Amino acid sequence: NPHPDEKLSDETLSQIAKEYMEALGYGNQPYIVFKHNDIAREHIHIVSLRINGEGKKINDKFEKRRSKQITDVLERKYGLIPSSKVRDNVETKTPKVNIDRGNIKEQVASILRMVLKHYCFCSLGELNAILSAYKLAVEEVKTEFRGRKYNGLVYLPTDGKGNKAGTPIHASDIGRGVGYTAVQNRMQKSKQAVKPLVPTIIGKVLQTMRTSPKTEEELRQRLEVQGLRVVIRKNESGRMYGVTFIDDKEGIALNGSRLGKGYAANVFNTYFSNPTHNPFLDETLYGCPSVHLEQSATVQSLRQNTEEGDNIVNELIEDMANGSFLPMGNDDWKEVAWQRKLRRQNKVNLKRRKR
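Request: output the structure for the sequence above.
Response:
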């Protein structure tokens, strides 16, 4: 997968593929080399067989490690830009969707693969906040076929302001790894991955808000200094109903409500309606991250009413005490509905497995 600045001929790519297959132990196998350009840079795929002419399986021990060692050698031999030095740079240079360029599906596929690999998010609202930077949005769709209900996702090119600017593309038309199940799995895994970073995000937001920015634009600019990007969602009347903080370097997106009630959209909406009163300067409320204040009170209440032996509640208490439970505000009704649906679906799947 060469760097975008590398312009290799078909002959060179074929020779590299040949040497790669020989070094990996597949040199005597039949194989096909296919040049692919569904992302921002051309690359090759190689399809072969694991069974040799004698019907025996080719040794594949430590194949991933050996493959990386071989590509490193080939990069040096052909004077290519080392992949280890350009991976992060390539991700940050992912272009926005451009309707005029054509090949919309390929553009969308390239962006989604980068986003789903690099970012952690726990809701569709947070994913949409990330995608907005690339002029892209995602929506959930429901359908029914032969009496069975199915959930799916469609991706929509936008004009950069959230307005639809192209024909929706079904996830199934893009390929594996970007559909409903894949995104749901990514959200579940992200819940664990984001926990260590939550206090850092809270600290940056709190520090910024204590500078008393008078406008949303000032908030954006000051958060950028902290290495954060903020996406604000408003309804038709102009009321703020969602705010998401994104750390592009760490690859994390967190709704304000996920940081605690003190960072929910309605708090920012009230503040910007009257910037002269800044609740973030109140040490009794924000002396430490509000998420921990809320957890302490809830933990104490639960402990008083929990009978010994109730494992489920005890696990919940321990999670909250350790800071691993993330409270969820109700500032984004779409996000809340999505989370509720995930919980219902998980219960259904659990019952099916028990059967």
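Residues 10-90 form one domain.
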